[in-house]
Design goal:
The structure holds 2 protein chains of 2 kinds. In chain A, 22% of the residues lie in helices and 30% in strands. By secondary structure, chain A is an alpha/beta fold. In chain B, β6 and β7 form a beta hairpin. Classes of the chains: A alpha/beta, B alpha+beta. The interface between A and B is large, with 35 and 43 residues. β2 of chain A pairs parallel with β8 of chain B, so a sheet runs across the interface.
Amino acid sequence: MNPEEIYKTLIDRFGNTVLGFDTELAGDPNIQIAPAAIANVCQYLAETDSLAFNSLMCLSGVDMGTKDEEFSVVYHLHSLRHRHSVVLKTTIPKTDAHLPTVSHIWKTADWHERETYDLYGIFFEGHTDLRRILLPDDWEGYPLRKDYMEPDFYRGMRVPY
Amino acid sequence: MESTQQTESKIIELKPFTDEMIVNMGPQHPSTHGVLRLELRLDGEVVREAIPHIGYLHRCFEKHSENLSYPQIIPFTDRMDYVAAMNQNWGFCLAVEKLLEADEKKDFEVPERAEYLRILICELNRIASHLLSFGTYGMDIGAFTPFLYAFRDRERLLLLFEKICGARLTYNYIRIGGVSEIIPMEPGSVDEQNYLDEVKEFLDYFEPKIDEYNDLLTANSIFSERTMGVAVMSEEMAISYGATGPNLRGSGVDWDLRRDEPYSIYDRFDFDVPVAKNIPELGAVVGDCWSRYKIRMDEMKESVKIVRQILAEGLPDGPVMAEMKAVRPPKGEIYFRSEAPRGELGFYIVSDGTPKPVRVKGRSPCFSALSALQELSRGLMVADIIAIIGSIDIVMGEVDR
């Protein structure tokens, strides 16, 4: 199935929690999903026979800039059985960055969500082990946010070089 | 000693466990292939839980990328998987080129000569990477000789890379729109002929060596005992954990991006995709450490096959770099994945139409494969952990980025 057919299938199944299909920008078109519904949509995509998205290729957070009020989280899915792929995107406000986890659907999401939490401060609800993964446990702030200011010192060591 | 006490009957039930011991393996352990720390919770010599702690080699690749122009990011990709840096350069360039192609005012095409050079050099780099994996795996298990053999051959490859781009490890050779021409090699010149002759000489030397290494290590009974049937990763588990490349094919999934989603000009070449099978007479099970290792040995032969086809055809004439003004992708986003030696290397790039990206994410194959370690190692012995790490073939530079 191509992304447009998948979009129509999702509209039929989930109605207005599927917010749109973005084809205007260059590159991959993406299907926009309401944040609260993302786990259900993913579960449906993974478990329905005609879709069978059994692999999560990539899960990334995006911060478009300091003027933007929202973070995006992007899911790149692929089906090894049907050999089709789709991009899901969901946006959450920066002031309340919470999202349901998909780590129970694809195990690779476990570490990818931890990384997104570590670098963006997006909380994945229902994740069993949401800890920092790349940075030290006592690091303050979330470096990939565009408004991040690096600290002058970390445990007595100068940070900017 | 764990005990549960029932308050009423005052019976103390003893569970047959010894005291749990916590051992830190790494970050300076020789078999962790870089700086990986494993928190081992042990019951005697049995591993109850092996929790990986990563990030020791985190060099903020993604944050740096947001402040650099696209061509400036390429040297940073070299430092991701420094064992197969050509493939990392290529993966990033492919993603940027794909995004540039989406522009309506597209005015470039990667020249044929550059495509041939890219495949030639990346397949040689794949051999170099698998050689390192083979050598260090042998050493992890306790065989020192394969390591020396592997590095002897890899050295010849590094010299070939040095001749084409001037660097041995971090190449910055593949650029957006073609390949670098820092060391000129005119089409049809003596330099080109000499170079191709040297590549051919290497292949003629190297191809019989693969069988020698198979005799030396693959069929070695001590090595087989340590790896066959150990840490079996089922097909479902491999897919769910996002294991790719040799790890996925080692679990019996017939999937290779070079064949199934051909990019560049891979569809012009004839090669096989090795997939693991059960070998009852030896004791190998699909998805065990030995299968993952064996896939890499077989892939080296396929890479030799591809390079031989390029040598037989010869490099086409023409430029090695597309004529383009500035690298300025249109507003949009792309996810592109390519088959690096360790699996699917993906780059997710978000552009806002300026010369610098808004977001670059490197989807590292080792990162996903390593996340399976915790489940793979549960209930095995400490020595098996070393066999697993070597078999999933991680490079920490890529895991931590």
